[in-house]
Give the backbone structure.
Amino acid sequence: MSRWAPVVWDGRVKLIVEELAMGSSAPAVLVIDDEMQIRRLLRAALQARGWRVMEADGGQLGISEVALGRPDAVILDLGLPDMDGVDVVRRLREWNRVPILVLSVRDSAEEKVRALDAGADDYVSKPFNTEELLARLRAIQRRGDPGSDGPEFVSGVLQIDFAAREVRVGGRRLGLTRIEYAVLKTLARNAGKVVTQRQLLREVWGPQGDDCSNHLRVHLAHLRTKLSAAGFDRNRIQTETGVGYRLIE
Amino acid sequence: MSRWAPVVWDGRVKLIVEELAMGSSAPAVLVIDDEMQIRRLLRAALQARGWRVMEADGGQLGISEVALGRPDAVILDLGLPDMDGVDVVRRLREWNRVPILVLSVRDSAEEKVRALDAGADDYVSKPFNTEELLARLRAIQRRGDPGSDGPEFVSGVLQIDFAAREVRVGGRRLGLTRIEYAVLKTLARNAGKVVTQRQLLREVWGPQGDDCSNHLRVHLAHLRTKLSAAGFDRNRIQTETGVGYRLIE
DNA sequence: ATGCTGTCTTAATGCTGTCTTAATGCGAAT
DNA sequence: ATTCGCATTAAGACAGCATTAAGACAGCAT
C-alpha cells in the first residue's frame, strides 16, 4: 500500500505529513485540564502552530502522562478536581524539569507566588488570550533544559543521545535515516520491554500508519544491518512473532 | 581605566561599592527603567530579598551595562525614552541569554507576543504586584543559563564572537550576511546537536516563517561556500535529511 | 529623488539518498 | 505439507537537497 492512499486530506493527515517532515520529533505539549472545552481550544491552537498535543483530564493522569509521554512542555490548569494544582507542580518537580505553564481562574498574587515558587515557569489567568499564551509557551520552552548533556541512553556498546539525535556504537557515530532512528529510539525508550508493531508503526507513520508492516520489516532489516556492521549484536533486537520487537538491555 | 580612578561619582561607581559591600556573590539583577520611582521601589524590594541591584535609565546604557556588569537577570521597562524596548530585547538576545523580565504599562496581547517572541522570558504589566514580580523573577532565573559561558564560540578553526557579531576562520574575518550569520549562530549554539529546520526557520524568519525551507537551503549553500573558501571543512555542517542540520564540534 | 551596492528571494536544474515496492527464501506453527 | 509471518535483498520511484543564476528589493550615499 502507498502512504498516499488516505481518502481524506484532513487536518490529521496534514499533521502527519508535518510530523514526518520534522522527523516525527515535533515538540510535544501536554495539556492537563479537566474542562474539555479548554482542552479542545488549546489543542486546535497548538496543533496549528506545529505542536504535538497530549491531553490529561486530571492531576494523577497528568503526572503519569509526563512520565510516559515525555512532553517538551506542560500546560497545567490549577483547578483540577482530583488534586491541588500546585501539588501537581511540586510532584512533577521532584523528578522532572519540563517547562510548566500554569493556568488558573484565580488571579491573586499569593496564588501566583505559590505556583511559581513550587516550580512553575509561568502563570496565566483565565480567561486568557490565546496568542499571548502561545507566546509565553514559546518563551518558557525556548529556554531548553540545561541539565541534559551527553548520551541519555547507554546499553553496552550502544549509546544514544536523544538531544543530539546521535547514535553511537562502540563510540563510532552511526548514520541512521529518519525512520531507522525513530524505530531505534522507540525501542531504546522501552528497552527490555516488547514494543508492539502498532506502536512502532504509529511512532513512524502516525495514527493512520497501520498496514505499513512490511515497510517496518524492511527498515528493521536495514537498522539491524547497520548496527551489526558497527559491532552491535544483531540478536539484541529480538522478534516477538505476532507481537512486536524488543531491544535486549 | 582603573576602577578606583573615577572622576565622577555616578551610578556605576556606586554599584561597585555595593558589590563590595555584599561580598559580590549575591545574584545581580539589572533594572532598566527611566522612572526613578520604579527603580527605587524595585531596588528596595530586590535588595530585601538578597539581590544585588544594578540600574540603568535608558536602553543604550542598559545594553552596555549588561555587557559590563553581566547581571544574572534583567528587568526591563519597555517604555524607554531613548529606544524601543522590544529592540533592546532583540539587541541583547543577539549575543546574550540573560533572563529578561519585561515591564510595561501596555497590557495588549500583541505587545506581549512581540516582546516574548523577541526573546523576553516574562512580561508583567504595570501596575504590578511586587510579590508576583519577585516570584516571576525567581522563576525565570531559576531555570539557569544553559548555553552561554561567555559570548565566545570556538571549535577548530572556527570562532564566533557573538557580542561583536564576528566570525573568524583560522583567524581571518569572514563577512556573513544577516541570515547566514543567524543560521551559523544557531548551529553553533547547538553544536553537535541536530537543529531542526523549523528551529532554523523560526530563528531567521520569525514564528510564522515556515514554508521558507527553500530559502534556508540557498543560504546554507552560501554559508557553506563562504566557510569552505576560508578553510573550514564544508562537511562539518551535516545534513540530516528530513530533519535538519548539525554543526560537528 | 537617483543610482549604486549588496542582500534576499525566486525559480530551475541535476543529483543524492531515502523510501517504497516487490520478489524470494526461511522457519515455525497448524 | 501447507500456510503464515518474518528476514532479506535489490531495484525503481520519489522526495528532499545542493547549487546556480537571475531578478527583486532594500539600504545607503550621492
